[in-house]
Description:
Elements: H1 10-16, H2 19-31, H3 34-41, H4 45-59, E1 64-67, E2 70-73, H5 75-102, E3 108-113, H6 118-132, E4 137-142, H7 145-153, E5 159-162, E6 172-180, E7 182-186, H8 200-203, E8 208-210, H9 216-227, E9 237-238, H10 242-250, E10 255-259, H11 260-268, E11 273-274, E12 283-291, H12 298-307, H13 311-316
Parallel strand pairs: 3-4, 3-5, 8-9, 8-10
Antiparallel strand pairs: 1-2, 5-12, 6-12, 7-10, 7-11
Helix pairs in contact: 2-3, 2-4, 2-5, 3-4, 6-12
Amino acid sequence: MGSIDKQDTTPQLLNRLRMRQIALILAIEDRRTLRAAAGQLGLTQPAATKMLHELESALGQSLFDRVGRGLQLNPAGERVTGYFRSIRGSMEALNRELGELRLGSAGKFSVGSIMAASPGHLTEALLGLKALFPLLSVQIAVDTSDRLLAQLGEGVLEVVIGRLAGQPGFDCVFRAIEDEGLAVVVGNDHPLARKRKVAFEMLLDYPWILQPAGSPMRDLIEHEFRDHHATLPKGLIETGSILTTINLIRRSQMIAVVPEAMARRDAEHGLLHIVHYRIRQKLEAYGSLVRKDRPLTKPAEHFLELVHARPKALRAE
Protein backbone atom coordinates (compact mmCIF):
# COMPACT_ATOMS: atom_id res chain seq x y z
CA MET A 1 0.00 0.00 0.00
CA GLY A 2 1.50 3.32 -1.04
CA SER A 3 1.74 6.26 1.32
CA ILE A 4 0.23 9.70 0.84
CA ASP A 5 2.55 12.12 -0.91
CA LYS A 6 3.84 14.69 1.55
CA GLN A 7 2.54 17.46 -0.70
CA ASP A 8 -1.03 16.14 -0.50
CA THR A 9 -3.33 18.45 1.42
CA THR A 10 -6.77 18.15 2.95
CA PRO A 11 -8.44 19.79 -0.10
CA GLN A 12 -6.73 17.23 -2.34
CA LEU A 13 -7.98 14.39 -0.14
CA LEU A 14 -11.49 15.82 -0.27
CA ASN A 15 -11.28 15.91 -4.06
CA ARG A 16 -10.43 12.20 -4.10
CA LEU A 17 -13.00 11.16 -1.51
CA ARG A 18 -16.45 10.13 -2.74
CA MET A 19 -19.64 9.62 -0.76
CA ARG A 20 -20.03 6.19 -2.38
CA GLN A 21 -16.73 5.15 -0.81
CA ILE A 22 -17.93 6.31 2.61
CA ALA A 23 -21.11 4.26 2.18
CA LEU A 24 -19.03 1.22 1.16
CA ILE A 25 -16.76 1.37 4.23
CA LEU A 26 -19.74 1.67 6.56
CA ALA A 27 -21.47 -1.20 4.76
CA ILE A 28 -18.38 -3.43 5.13
CA GLU A 29 -18.25 -2.58 8.82
CA ASP A 30 -21.91 -3.58 9.11
CA ARG A 31 -21.93 -6.69 6.89
CA ARG A 32 -18.35 -7.90 7.55
CA THR A 33 -17.71 -9.09 3.98
CA LEU A 34 -17.03 -7.19 0.77
CA ARG A 35 -19.53 -9.32 -1.15
CA ALA A 36 -22.38 -8.57 1.26
CA ALA A 37 -21.49 -4.86 1.38
CA ALA A 38 -21.42 -4.68 -2.42
CA GLY A 39 -24.82 -6.35 -2.60
CA GLN A 40 -26.25 -3.90 -0.06
CA LEU A 41 -25.13 -0.98 -2.24
CA GLY A 42 -26.08 -2.57 -5.56
CA LEU A 43 -22.46 -2.90 -6.68
CA THR A 44 -20.61 -5.78 -8.29
CA GLN A 45 -17.84 -7.23 -6.14
CA PRO A 46 -15.07 -6.16 -8.60
CA ALA A 47 -16.43 -2.59 -8.55
CA ALA A 48 -16.52 -2.61 -4.76
CA THR A 49 -12.98 -3.99 -4.60
CA LYS A 50 -11.70 -1.25 -6.92
CA MET A 51 -13.52 1.41 -4.90
CA LEU A 52 -12.00 0.14 -1.63
CA HIS A 53 -8.49 0.09 -3.14
CA GLU A 54 -8.92 3.65 -4.45
CA LEU A 55 -10.00 4.88 -1.02
CA GLU A 56 -7.15 3.13 0.78
CA SER A 57 -4.73 4.59 -1.78
CA ALA A 58 -6.12 8.09 -1.18
CA LEU A 59 -5.79 7.67 2.59
CA GLY A 60 -2.40 5.96 2.40
CA GLN A 61 -3.61 3.28 4.82
CA SER A 62 -5.19 -0.15 4.59
CA LEU A 63 -8.40 -0.18 6.60
CA PHE A 64 -9.22 -3.86 7.03
CA ASP A 65 -7.53 -7.11 7.99
CA ARG A 66 -8.77 -10.31 6.40
CA VAL A 67 -10.15 -12.75 8.99
CA GLY A 68 -11.26 -16.00 7.42
CA ARG A 69 -13.64 -15.01 4.64
CA GLY A 70 -14.52 -11.72 6.24
CA LEU A 71 -12.96 -8.32 6.81
CA GLN A 72 -12.19 -6.76 10.19
CA LEU A 73 -11.37 -3.12 10.82
CA ASN A 74 -7.77 -2.46 11.81
CA PRO A 75 -6.82 0.55 14.03
CA ALA A 76 -6.71 2.91 11.02
CA GLY A 77 -10.06 1.58 9.85
CA GLU A 78 -11.59 2.18 13.29
CA ARG A 79 -10.54 5.84 13.15
CA VAL A 80 -11.72 6.31 9.57
CA THR A 81 -15.13 4.73 10.16
CA GLY A 82 -15.61 6.92 13.22
CA TYR A 83 -15.22 10.00 11.03
CA PHE A 84 -17.34 8.45 8.26
CA ARG A 85 -20.19 7.78 10.70
CA SER A 86 -20.02 11.44 11.66
CA ILE A 87 -20.20 12.45 7.99
CA ARG A 88 -23.22 10.19 7.50
CA GLY A 89 -24.88 11.73 10.56
CA SER A 90 -24.25 15.22 9.19
CA MET A 91 -25.76 14.27 5.84
CA GLU A 92 -28.81 12.75 7.53
CA ALA A 93 -29.26 15.94 9.56
CA LEU A 94 -28.92 18.05 6.42
CA ASN A 95 -31.43 15.89 4.58
CA ARG A 96 -33.93 16.25 7.43
CA GLU A 97 -33.55 20.02 7.46
CA LEU A 98 -33.98 20.30 3.69
CA GLY A 99 -37.02 18.06 3.86
CA GLU A 100 -38.56 20.26 6.54
CA LEU A 101 -37.90 23.36 4.44
CA ARG A 102 -39.52 21.75 1.39
CA LEU A 103 -42.60 21.08 3.50
CA GLY A 104 -42.65 24.72 4.61
CA SER A 105 -42.12 24.02 8.30
CA ALA A 106 -39.77 25.81 10.68
CA GLY A 107 -37.35 22.87 10.82
CA LYS A 108 -36.22 20.60 13.62
CA PHE A 109 -33.94 21.04 16.62
CA SER A 110 -32.46 18.11 18.54
CA VAL A 111 -30.95 18.67 21.98
CA GLY A 112 -29.66 16.31 24.64
CA SER A 113 -29.41 17.10 28.33
CA ILE A 114 -28.35 15.57 31.61
CA MET A 115 -31.15 15.38 34.16
CA ALA A 116 -29.66 18.06 36.41
CA ALA A 117 -30.25 20.77 33.81
CA SER A 118 -33.80 19.71 32.98
CA PRO A 119 -35.86 21.49 35.67
CA GLY A 120 -34.19 24.90 35.27
CA HIS A 121 -31.90 25.92 32.44
CA LEU A 122 -33.18 23.45 29.84
CA THR A 123 -36.86 24.12 30.51
CA GLU A 124 -36.48 27.90 30.50
CA ALA A 125 -34.41 27.89 27.31
CA LEU A 126 -36.86 25.60 25.49
CA LEU A 127 -39.83 27.78 26.49
CA GLY A 128 -37.97 30.82 25.18
CA LEU A 129 -37.09 28.99 21.97
CA LYS A 130 -40.70 27.95 21.32
CA ALA A 131 -41.77 31.54 21.84
CA LEU A 132 -39.39 32.54 19.03
CA PHE A 133 -40.18 29.54 16.77
CA PRO A 134 -43.73 28.31 17.51
CA LEU A 135 -43.70 25.81 14.60
CA LEU A 136 -40.24 24.43 15.38
CA SER A 137 -40.14 20.67 15.97
CA VAL A 138 -38.00 19.91 19.05
CA GLN A 139 -36.57 16.53 20.00
CA ILE A 140 -35.15 16.13 23.52
CA ALA A 141 -32.94 13.29 24.75
CA VAL A 142 -32.20 12.99 28.48
CA ASP A 143 -29.28 10.73 29.36
CA THR A 144 -25.79 10.66 30.86
CA SER A 145 -23.08 12.91 29.41
CA ASP A 146 -21.05 10.11 27.85
CA ARG A 147 -24.03 8.75 25.92
CA LEU A 148 -25.17 12.19 24.82
CA LEU A 149 -21.68 13.03 23.54
CA ALA A 150 -21.73 9.90 21.39
CA GLN A 151 -24.99 11.10 19.80
CA LEU A 152 -23.51 14.57 19.31
CA GLY A 153 -20.57 13.02 17.47
CA GLU A 154 -22.86 10.99 15.22
CA GLY A 155 -24.94 14.03 14.29
CA VAL A 156 -28.09 12.80 16.06
CA LEU A 157 -28.00 15.80 18.42
CA GLU A 158 -27.08 19.38 17.57
CA VAL A 159 -26.52 20.62 21.14
CA VAL A 160 -25.80 18.78 24.38
CA ILE A 161 -26.17 20.16 27.90
CA GLY A 162 -23.77 18.05 29.91
CA ARG A 163 -20.13 17.51 30.80
CA LEU A 164 -17.11 16.96 28.62
CA ALA A 165 -16.74 13.33 29.70
CA GLY A 166 -13.43 11.79 28.61
CA GLN A 167 -12.14 12.23 25.06
CA PRO A 168 -15.14 12.42 22.71
CA GLY A 169 -13.07 11.76 19.58
CA PHE A 170 -14.10 15.00 17.86
CA ASP A 171 -13.51 18.72 18.40
CA CYS A 172 -16.23 20.48 20.34
CA VAL A 173 -16.86 23.79 22.08
CA PHE A 174 -17.77 23.72 25.79
CA ARG A 175 -19.28 26.68 27.67
CA ALA A 176 -19.90 26.21 31.40
CA ILE A 177 -23.38 26.88 32.80
CA GLU A 178 -23.44 25.82 36.45
CA ASP A 179 -21.77 23.69 39.09
CA GLU A 180 -23.76 20.75 40.35
CA GLY A 181 -23.94 19.38 43.86
CA LEU A 182 -25.12 15.87 44.68
CA ALA A 183 -27.41 14.53 47.36
CA VAL A 184 -27.90 11.08 48.86
CA VAL A 185 -31.64 10.36 48.88
CA VAL A 186 -33.98 7.74 50.34
CA GLY A 187 -37.70 7.21 50.70
CA ASN A 188 -39.54 9.06 53.43
CA ASP A 189 -39.99 5.85 55.48
CA HIS A 190 -36.34 4.81 55.24
CA PRO A 191 -34.51 4.30 58.58
CA LEU A 192 -31.82 6.83 57.58
CA ALA A 193 -34.46 9.52 56.98
CA ARG A 194 -34.79 9.92 60.76
CA LYS A 195 -31.04 10.28 61.41
CA ARG A 196 -29.67 13.77 62.05
CA LYS A 197 -26.17 12.68 61.09
CA VAL A 198 -25.23 9.76 58.86
CA ALA A 199 -21.74 8.21 58.60
CA PHE A 200 -20.60 6.62 55.36
CA GLU A 201 -20.51 3.16 56.96
CA MET A 202 -24.25 3.41 57.68
CA LEU A 203 -24.94 3.75 53.96
CA LEU A 204 -23.40 0.34 53.30
CA ASP A 205 -26.23 -1.46 55.12
CA TYR A 206 -28.66 -0.84 52.26
CA PRO A 207 -28.89 -1.62 48.52
CA TRP A 208 -27.88 1.11 46.07
CA ILE A 209 -29.08 2.58 42.79
CA LEU A 210 -26.36 4.18 40.65
CA GLN A 211 -25.99 5.65 37.20
CA PRO A 212 -24.38 3.41 34.56
CA ALA A 213 -20.61 2.91 34.62
CA GLY A 214 -18.70 5.55 32.66
CA SER A 215 -20.98 8.46 33.54
CA PRO A 216 -19.41 11.37 35.49
CA MET A 217 -21.74 10.89 38.45
CA ARG A 218 -20.93 7.16 38.66
CA ASP A 219 -17.19 7.92 38.52
CA LEU A 220 -17.58 10.38 41.40
CA ILE A 221 -19.48 7.88 43.58
CA GLU A 222 -16.89 5.18 42.89
CA HIS A 223 -14.25 7.71 44.00
CA GLU A 224 -16.22 8.29 47.22
CA PHE A 225 -16.20 4.55 47.94
CA ARG A 226 -12.45 4.32 47.27
CA ASP A 227 -11.82 7.24 49.66
CA HIS A 228 -13.50 5.18 52.37
CA HIS A 229 -11.67 1.99 51.35
CA ALA A 230 -14.98 0.36 50.50
CA THR A 231 -16.17 -1.61 47.49
CA LEU A 232 -19.42 -0.92 45.66
CA PRO A 233 -22.38 -2.84 47.10
CA LYS A 234 -23.32 -6.05 45.31
CA GLY A 235 -26.63 -6.30 43.50
CA LEU A 236 -26.59 -2.73 42.19
CA ILE A 237 -29.43 -1.34 40.14
CA GLU A 238 -27.94 0.79 37.36
CA THR A 239 -30.07 3.34 35.52
CA GLY A 240 -29.71 6.80 34.03
CA SER A 241 -33.42 7.48 34.68
CA ILE A 242 -34.00 9.78 37.65
CA LEU A 243 -37.74 9.02 37.50
CA THR A 244 -37.09 5.29 37.83
CA THR A 245 -34.63 5.97 40.64
CA ILE A 246 -37.12 8.06 42.63
CA ASN A 247 -39.92 5.52 42.14
CA LEU A 248 -37.66 2.72 43.40
CA ILE A 249 -36.44 4.47 46.56
CA ARG A 250 -39.97 5.54 47.49
CA ARG A 251 -41.07 1.89 47.63
CA SER A 252 -37.97 0.27 49.10
CA GLN A 253 -35.01 0.79 51.42
CA MET A 254 -32.66 1.53 48.54
CA ILE A 255 -30.26 4.46 48.51
CA ALA A 256 -29.54 6.68 45.50
CA VAL A 257 -27.53 9.75 44.54
CA VAL A 258 -29.19 12.45 42.43
CA PRO A 259 -28.44 16.10 41.54
CA GLU A 260 -28.95 18.30 44.58
CA ALA A 261 -31.28 20.75 42.81
CA MET A 262 -33.64 17.92 41.86
CA ALA A 263 -33.40 16.36 45.32
CA ARG A 264 -34.38 19.63 47.02
CA ARG A 265 -37.31 20.14 44.67
CA ASP A 266 -38.65 16.61 45.23
CA ALA A 267 -38.05 16.84 48.99
CA GLU A 268 -40.10 20.05 49.13
CA HIS A 269 -42.95 18.14 47.46
CA GLY A 270 -42.66 15.30 49.98
CA LEU A 271 -41.50 12.75 47.41
CA LEU A 272 -38.23 11.76 49.12
CA HIS A 273 -35.86 12.55 51.97
CA ILE A 274 -32.32 13.93 51.68
CA VAL A 275 -29.91 11.98 53.89
CA HIS A 276 -27.67 14.06 56.17
CA TYR A 277 -24.47 12.93 54.53
CA ARG A 278 -22.25 15.20 52.43
CA ILE A 279 -20.41 13.65 49.50
CA ARG A 280 -16.80 14.80 49.57
CA GLN A 281 -16.36 15.13 45.82
CA LYS A 282 -18.18 17.58 43.54
CA LEU A 283 -19.02 17.17 39.90
CA GLU A 284 -17.42 19.48 37.39
CA ALA A 285 -19.64 22.22 36.02
CA TYR A 286 -21.97 21.19 33.24
CA GLY A 287 -22.47 23.36 30.18
CA SER A 288 -23.34 23.47 26.50
CA LEU A 289 -21.46 21.32 24.00
CA VAL A 290 -21.54 21.71 20.22
CA ARG A 291 -19.35 20.35 17.46
CA LYS A 292 -16.68 22.77 16.26
CA ASP A 293 -16.76 21.46 12.69
CA ARG A 294 -20.52 21.73 12.14
CA PRO A 295 -22.45 24.98 11.49
CA LEU A 296 -25.32 25.67 13.87
CA THR A 297 -28.89 26.22 12.75
CA LYS A 298 -30.64 29.43 13.77
CA PRO A 299 -32.75 27.64 16.42
CA ALA A 300 -29.56 26.18 17.92
CA GLU A 301 -27.92 29.61 18.04
CA HIS A 302 -30.94 31.11 19.82
CA PHE A 303 -31.14 28.13 22.19
CA LEU A 304 -27.52 28.64 23.25
CA GLU A 305 -28.16 32.33 23.90
CA LEU A 306 -31.15 31.44 26.07
CA VAL A 307 -29.53 28.60 27.99
CA HIS A 308 -26.55 30.80 28.91
CA ALA A 309 -28.70 33.77 29.92
CA ARG A 310 -29.14 34.49 33.60
CA PRO A 311 -32.33 33.01 35.13
CA LYS A 312 -33.68 36.52 35.89
CA ALA A 313 -33.32 37.51 32.26
CA LEU A 314 -35.09 34.35 31.21
CA ARG A 315 -37.99 34.98 33.60
CA ALA A 316 -38.25 38.57 32.43
CA GLU A 317 -38.85 37.36 28.88
